[in-house]
Amino acid sequence: MAQPVVGWWDRYRGALPGGLLDISELEAHAQRLRTAHTVHIPGLLQTIDHARVIFGAVVPPLPEKELEVRLVHRMERQRILFRDDPPDYYGIVHEAALRMQFGGTAVARAQLEHLLHMSELSHVTLRVLPVARGVFPGAGQTLVYAEGPVPQLDTVQIDSTHGPDFLYAEAQLSKYRAQLDWMERLAMEPDDSRRFIEDIAGHI
């Protein structure tokens, strides 16, 4: 019988919810990641100080030890963007997420500067969806579309208050591809997006 593939995330088994480990595995095997965030900064692009604030604002509150484990895990997840064969990352971030001052002005400014730095990587495309562009489907929803080696392995991951949900059915995948396409049509081009982020950072 074939042995299951063991990934770095297995070190956290028993210490973190299984859904967080599933996200790690999903990202590790993805050929391309398409994401859309309207309130939060994408997890793969968060600074540790920003992530600490996010993990500190949950009900019920996390024990300090568990919070620290989640932080370490999140930072380790980000290594996929720096490995030898990183997935192409295509992220849409709504203006609302950029203006959230989670942790105060210093943390918020550092987070925006980190976004700008990450957007300079050749395999990372970051586009801003301004408030002025109006309505779009799935507003308020966090969406990650992971493209596998073959289309049959594509997966959508959606955040919820009880943890991540994973969708695999073709009808669901088609729906969220269309949703991302809609948002991409509204979003600013990468260079304009960087200037937009710089402007917000400069006024915090």
Characterization of the model:
With 204 residues, the chain is α/β, with parallel strands linked by helices. It has a domain at 29-45 and 87-202: Endonuclease, Chain A, CATH 3.30.870. The protein has 7 helices and 6 strands; from the N terminus they run αβααβααββββαα. A hairpin with a 6-residue loop joins strand 5 and strand 6 (165-167). The chain is globular and about 45 Å long. The model has no long low-confidence stretch (mean pLDDT 94).
Q: Into which percentage range does the β-strand content fall?
A: 15-25%
Radius of gyration, in angstroms, nearest whole number = 17 Å
Output the CATH class name of one domain: Alpha Beta
Main sheet specs: 6 strands, mixed
The geometry reads as: globular
Give the number of DSSP strands. 6
Query: How far is the N terminus from the C terminus?
Result: 57 Å
Content-based structural category: alpha/beta
Helix content: 40-55%
Spatial ordering of strands, largest sheet: 3-2-1-4-5-6
Helix/strand layout:
Elements (H helix, E strand, L loop, with lengths): L17 H12 L2 E6 L10 H8 L8 H14 L10 E7 H5 L5 H14 L5 E6 L13 E5 L7 E4 L6 E3 L2 H17 L3 H13 L2
Parallel strand pairs: 1-2, 2-3
Antiparallel strand pairs: 1-4, 4-5, 5-6
Helix pairs in contact: 2-3, 5-7
Keywords:
about 200 residues, alpha/beta, Endonuclease, Chain A, 6-stranded mixed β-sheet, 7 helices, 6 strands
Question: What is this structure, in a nutshell?
Answer:
This protein is α/β, with parallel strands linked by helices. Helix content is 41%, strand content 15%.
